[in-house]
């Protein structure tokens, strides 16, 4: 039996949280026996798995002080984010997942402390871990560019979409609840600057689609206003498939993504996708999306308008989306994680 300790405190963060919640059930099966570090006990998603309470802020000094105290003696410790323990712990081996190099590539959007912390701790995570995992080939190249080569070659394991949860589901109650337009373009993600939402708002206006609306879903900590957009904020997870299903199309205009799950979630719900050609997005979406340059508003507007107006193109994107999303399966992602973990424990 392999005793595996997992830092699961970010289970409900966007992106990283999805990865934790989807993988943990697979990682608590023989030969692995998992124990989770959690920020509150008796969480329904990990019921039946041993839990250790570690209630302290991510990236804090207290977190680093408490890691050696709370992490039990184990064969392997997995950090699903780069905030690894910096002090010695009672784990024989360590694996870290660094999902992207966003904090390094977009450091100008961070405070000086946050930039220094990200650079130093990611570097330590890269050098001190027995294995580094990331989500895309793009992210692997970016991490090597900013951090240098780690002890071992970075393993690329794509994340996935839960096809059972993300299915086409139309519910008029959701339309009424959020007062959604009859036809709308949808964005899903956090509302940070690199998501390019002001560019999206300009492009949507330029597309000039009478009777249409622009709907944004995601955390908006700055309470930022986006012109001519309906901002729903964070919505319950069970409502996301319904929003994808009601939308005429998803627009994903980011300048930078380490992976980007929303286009795959939209594809799984039969929603055509119009996406940026930047960073890892083409690697994820393949031939199942219509692309535009994120810095060219007129090009984005033209892509939105094409998908909005041409039914044949929409149908083709929907069909290709169904085919594409089947290539990203959580069971396969978990199989690759388990294989890496077993390899590390044999070192």
Protein model, in words:
- With 347 residues, the chain is of the alpha/beta class.
- The protein folds into two domains: 2-160 and 329-345, Rossmann fold (3-Layer(aba) Sandwich); 172-325, Rossmann fold (3-Layer(aba) Sandwich).
- Helix content is 39%, strand content 18%.
- It has 13 helices and 13 strands.
- The chain has a seven-stranded parallel sheet with strand order 3-2-1-4-5-6-7, with helices on both faces. A six-stranded parallel sheet has the order 10-9-8-11-12-13, with helices on both faces.
- β12, α10 (281-285) and β13 (290-292) form a beta-alpha-beta unit.
- The longest helix has 17 residues, at 112-128.
- The radius of gyration is 21 Å and the shape is globular.
- The model has no long low-confidence stretch (mean pLDDT 95).
List keywords for this structure.
alpha/beta; Rossmann fold; 2 domains; six-stranded parallel beta sheet
CATH superfamily of the largest domain: Glycogen Phosphorylase B
Structural class by SSE content:
alpha/beta
The tally of domains stands at: 2
Strand order of the largest sheet: 3-2-1-4-5-6-7
Q: Percent range for helical residues?
A: 25-40%
Number of strands: 13
CATH topology of the largest domain: Rossmann fold
What letter string, H or E per element, gives the SSE order?
EHEEHEEHHEHEHEHEEHEHEHEHHH
What coarse outline follows from CA principal-axis ratios?
globular
Note the beta-strand portion. 15-25%
Q: What does the average pLDDT come to?
A: 95
CATH architecture of the largest domain: 3-Layer(aba) Sandwich
Q: Sketch the major β-sheet.
A: 7 strands, parallel
* Number of contiguous helices: 13
Give the quaternary arrangement of the chains: single chain
CATH class of the largest domain: Alpha Beta
Radius of gyration: 21 Å
- Unreliable spans are none
Note the gap between the termini: 16 Å
């Amino acid at each position: 039996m392999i005793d595996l300790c997992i830092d699961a405190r970010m289970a409900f963060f966007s992106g990283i949280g999805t990865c934790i919640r989807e993988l943990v059930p697979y990682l608590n099966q023989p030969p692995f026996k998992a124990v989770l570090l959690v920020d509150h006990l008796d969480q329904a998603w990990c019921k039946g798995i041993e839990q250790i309470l570690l209630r302290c802020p991510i990236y804090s000094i207290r977190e680093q002080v408490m890691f050696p105290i709370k992490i039990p003696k184990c064969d392997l410790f997995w950090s699903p984010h780069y905030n690894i323990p910096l002090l010695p712990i009672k784990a024989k081996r360590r694996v870290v997942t660094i999902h992207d190099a966003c904090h390094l590539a977009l450091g100008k959007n961070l405070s000086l402390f946050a930039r220094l912390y990200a650079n130093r701790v990611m570097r330590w995570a890269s050098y001190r871990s027995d294995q580094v995992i990331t989500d895309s080939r793009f992210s692997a190249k970016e991490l090597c560019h900013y951090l240098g080569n780690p002890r071992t070659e970075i393993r690329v394991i794509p994340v996935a979409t839960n096809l059972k949860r993300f299915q086409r589901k139309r519910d008029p109650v959701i339309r009424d609840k959020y007062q959604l337009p009859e036809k709308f373009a949808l964005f899903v993600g956090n509302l940070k600057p690199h998501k390019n939402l002001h560019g999206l708002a300009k492009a949507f206006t330029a597309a000039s689609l009478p009777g249409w609306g622009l709907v944004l879903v995601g955390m908006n900590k700055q309470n930022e206003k986006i012109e001519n957009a309906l901002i729903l904020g964070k919505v319950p997870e069970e409502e996301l498939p319904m929003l994808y299903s009601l939308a005429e199309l998803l627009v994903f205009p980011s300048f930078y993504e380490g992976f980007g799950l929303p286009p795959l979630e939209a594809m799984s719900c039969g929603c055509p996708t119009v996406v940026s050609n930047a960073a890892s997005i083409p690697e994820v979406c393949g031939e199942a999306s219509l692309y535009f340059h994120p810095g060219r508003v007129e090009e984005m507007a033209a892509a939105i308008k094409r998908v909005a107006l041409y039914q044949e193109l929409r149908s083709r994107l929907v069909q290709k989306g169904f085919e594409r999303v089947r290539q990203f399966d959580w069971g396969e992602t978990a199989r690759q994680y388990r294989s890496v973990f077993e390899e590390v424990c044999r070192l």
